[in-house]
Design goal:
The chain is mainly beta. The chain has one helix at 99-104; strands spanning 2-5, 9-14, 19-25, 47-48, 59-62, 65-68, 82-86, 90-96, 109-118, 121-130, 136-138, 140-142, 145-147, 159-174, 180-195, 206-208, 215-220, 224-230, 236-240, 247-254, 273-275, 280-289. It has a 9-stranded antiparallel β-sheet with strand order 7-8-9-10-22-18-17-14-15, with no helix packed on it. Strands 4, 12, 13, 16, 19 and 20 form a 6-stranded antiparallel β-sheet that branches. It has a 3-stranded antiparallel β-sheet with strand order 1-2-3, with no helix packed on it. The radius of gyration is 19 Å and the shape is globular. It starts with a strand and ends with a strand.
């Protein structure tokens, strides 16, 4: 594990996948990142690139050729990511294209992700470089899982998510293959709070496209505000947990899983980002411990 700490927080990042595996409040001793109990979900905070969720039939088409791609892309579980830089308050990881990646993703790219501590905040910053002579098509997202509850005298139902504004929100329902359907279900009606309960994710993740809110706070009705996630650079948001598990994922997304009616063409995939040849792209989200 690669570790950083300041007077308020400590973090650990797994070199495999550059996955955040610990975010601890040094003042309280509380661990905020789910510790990956495989009985429910073995991951902790996978990084999603160059796709989010599943592709229809596990593949996409680019310029009349088919490519196979695992769920959430190939940064997750990747052992080829290297630590590029470490300073007193920042870790920077890098993954470059290779002959292996070109077989499943026909683009020359550089993926960088950094974790920077500033007092009681952790900023997760993504930097994508198009090293190719053609446009780069990609999606990008985070998937951090936060412990809830954080104390033994609380239960999951004591917790809720509070957004920075009241909204009407509808979630898009995933079908049995993990594809986004046209069916929606109302979650908020001019409200700002989603209460956590064991049936909330019975139909899988809550998927909010073009969400007006850009900040959400995890709160307990007993102990108040726990942490916030601010995601100004991301259009979509996923909220998810394995039913019955003691965590909630707050997932900023640029992109989305394949929709049911997709033609599987990467160029027309819903939510796809397009980066011109030789250009770079940056997006970040920030976790504040309150």
């Amino acid at each position: 594990m690669h570790e950083l700490q300041n007077e308020f927080l400590s973090i650990k990042v797994n070199p495999v996948g550059a996955e955040l595996s610990s975010l601890k409040n040094l003042e309280t001793g509380i661990e905020h990142v789910w510790q990956g109990n495989p009985e429910f979900w073995a991951s902790q905070a996978p990084n999603l690139f160059p796709v989010i969720g599943v592709l229809k039939e596990g593949k996409f088409i680019f310029e009349n050729k088919e490519y196979q791609m695992p769920k959430h892309g190939f940064v997750r579980h990747n052992e080829n990511i290297r630590l590029k830089e470490k300073t007193a308050n920042k870790l920077v990881f890098q993954l470059d294209y290779s002959t292996e990646t070109l077989e499943i993703y026909p683009f020359k790219f550089r993926f960088e992700i950094s974790f920077q501590l500033n007092k009681k905040s952790l900023t997760v910053h993504h930097h994508i470089f198009n090293l190719d002579g053609k446009p780069l098509y990609f999606s990008l997202g985070g998937h951090p899982a936060f412990n809830a509850p954080i104390s033994e005298n609380e239960v999951y139902e004591d917790y809720y998510l509070e957004f920075d504004r009241k909204m009407d929100l509808r979630t898009y329902i995933l079908n049995e293959d993990g594809l986004v359907s046209d069916t929606t279900e109302g979650i908020l009606d001019n409200e700002d709070k989603i209460r956590l309960h064991k049936e909330l994710f019975a139909k899988d993740a809550l998927i909010f496209k073009n969400i007006p809110s850009k900040k959400v706070v995890l709160k307990s009705k007993n102990s108040g505000s726990i942490l916030s996630v601010e995601y100004k650079d991301f259009k979509n948001l996923g909220i998810w947990a394995k039913p019955g598990a003691s965590y909630v994922c707050i997932e900023p997304w640029l992109g989305i899983a394949d929709v049911e009616g997709t033609d599987q063409n990467l160029k027309t995939k819903e939510g796809i980002q397009i980066l011109a040849a030789g250009k770079d792209f940056q997006a970040a989200y920030t976790i504040d411990i309150i």
